[in-house]
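Q: What structure does this chain adopt?
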Amino acid sequence: MRLYITGGSGYLGSYVRNLAHQNGWQVRYSVFQASPATDADTVDLRRRGQLTAAIRAFAPQAVIHTAYRQHEPDLHAVTVLGAIEAAAASAMVSARHIHMSSDMVFAGTAGEYDEIDAPNPIVPYGFAKAVAEAGVAQANPEASIVRTSLIYSPPQQPPGRHEQIALAAANGMSPMNFFHDEIRCPVLVDELAQALLILIGQPHRGPLHLVGRDAVSRFEFAQRVVRARGGNPVTLKSATLANMHPPRPARLVLRSTYPNPAWQLRGVRTVLPD
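A:
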């Protein structure tokens, strides 16, 4: 299998890349900053055509698009236009395409969301991801659009960004409040990476929700992360979304109408027990 990964040096991209290598796949990936790695392409997604040229040169059988920006000034150029270019380039070389999206495409006002629910974002990042989803679907109708949630690492591996935030807050190094009423479905990074590689061989198109089984508050998630890594969660501070302006989604519980026993996405309460 020839696999191309955008954002291959990022958190999720690195896990996908390493797992694909372990499976004996031929992998090439894009990075934003120049790298000495011989299997990496330096690509600026703000400059149209660079990614297309890299994908055409490698002629992969599958592309997983993980690259994004969460904030301005490059939110639209990278998260929207870069995603559409990746999907179009995949279609150009007849490659299976998987686009990574987010639970933030929803407003968080429903009990649960499944794949047939229409995006209704309320934050800029969610708007960008929703527009990207629509553009990807138009550029490459056969693409899978994977919505996921907070991604984290097992305790024996280096912490990801969400864990780093919780650990810094618990150690008094960074002021941070964690919301009791913001509900998400955290997913273990290596299990998500495995599911993405399995998905390449699945006859699926359109949205797909790949999240952990447990819906927990951001406060509970932070507590479990800190406890699992030997810290004291008592020092964590909690708050409610009522104090947030502008508002952010409250309840992002994603469920899937495409269950697949081939992947096991455990809940955070199983991975990080009390």
